[in-house]
Amino acid sequence: MAGGYFADHFSKRSVTIGIKVFEIFCHAAGVERAGGQSALAGHRLRFLMEVHSAIFGPSKYGLLPELLPERRLSWGNGVLELGTFISIIGGTVVGALLCKAFAGRQGWSGAVLVGLAGLGLFTSLGISKVPAADPAKKFRANFLADLWVQIKLIRKDRVLWLATLGNTYFFTLARCCNSSLSSMRKMCSTFPIRRRAVISRPRPPSALSGSFAAGIFPAAKSNTA
């Protein structure tokens, strides 16, 4: 809910740039603490990155209708999701490779992440300037009440409501499947680290193809109409 507030109260471009700066600091802190190989430090970094994603998400997706005409929204959403899941898959594989290549020297892995975050900041500067959607919006500390308001708004649009239910269902199912694989990963602890990384990510390939279809087929339909 806080991410939605920032996305409306401020320019989504400004929020995106700001969160990319925050991402650099997160990874820089990870580099500093990587030498100690502290599990607690790793959990702290993961928490900060989860906060990063929660704030970044509404601005990332909210930028689409502000930058694209309505007839291109489906295409833009499909491309955005496609890029997101390519990054998830690639990050899973590359992360495992970095873990193996820099065993005992994970500060170098953190340096790579800082570089990628810097690249993200650089590309975010190319986003077209957009005004704040609702500068007068007030922050609501009661996130449950805010969530209920958003649900009521979504239910007014049947297609959007069904899409939200479907998205929630499949992501929840993926999380449950991922959790159930914990015991399998322990059984496969003797596997090479790259194979273990692949096992831990059952979701992205299907989501990848779904994102591709979601962007391509509606566009094709509109072109033939």
Would you spell out the secondary-structure blueprint of this structure?
Layout: H1 2-9, H2 12-34, H3 39-67, H4 73-101, H5 107-124, H6 143-155, H7 158-180, H8 182-187, H9 193-199, H10 204-224
Helix pairs in contact: 1-3, 2-3, 2-5, 4-9, 4-10
Sum up the structure in keywords.
single chain, 225 residues, mainly alpha, 10 helices, 0% strand, disordered C terminus
- Structural class, by secondary structure, is mainly alpha
The total tally of domains equals 1
Q: Give the termini distance in whole angstroms.
A: 38 Å
Shape label: globular
Question: Helix count, per DSSP?
Answer: 10
What proportion strand? under 5%
Describe the biggest sheet? none
From the alpha-carbon coordinates, what is the Rg to the nearest angstrom? Answer: 20 Å
Assembly form of the protein: single chain
Low-confidence stretches: 202-206, 211-225
Give the topology string: H per helix, E per strand.
HHHHHHHHHH
The number of E-state strands comes to: 0
Helix content: over 70%
Mean pLDDT over the full residue set: 77
Provide structural commentary.
- The chain is globular and about 55 Å long.
- It is mostly helical and 225 residues long.
- The longest helix is centred in the N-terminal third of the chain and has 29 residues, at 39-67.
- The protein has one domain (2-139, 181-220).
- It is built from ten helices and no strands.
- The chain is 79% helix and 0% strand.
- Helix 2 runs antiparallel to helix 3 (39-67) and helix 2 packs antiparallel against helix 5.
- Residues 202-206 and 211-225 have low confidence and may be disordered.
- The protein has helices at residues 2-9, 12-34, 39-67, 73-101, 107-124, 143-155, 158-180, 182-187, 193-199, 204-224.
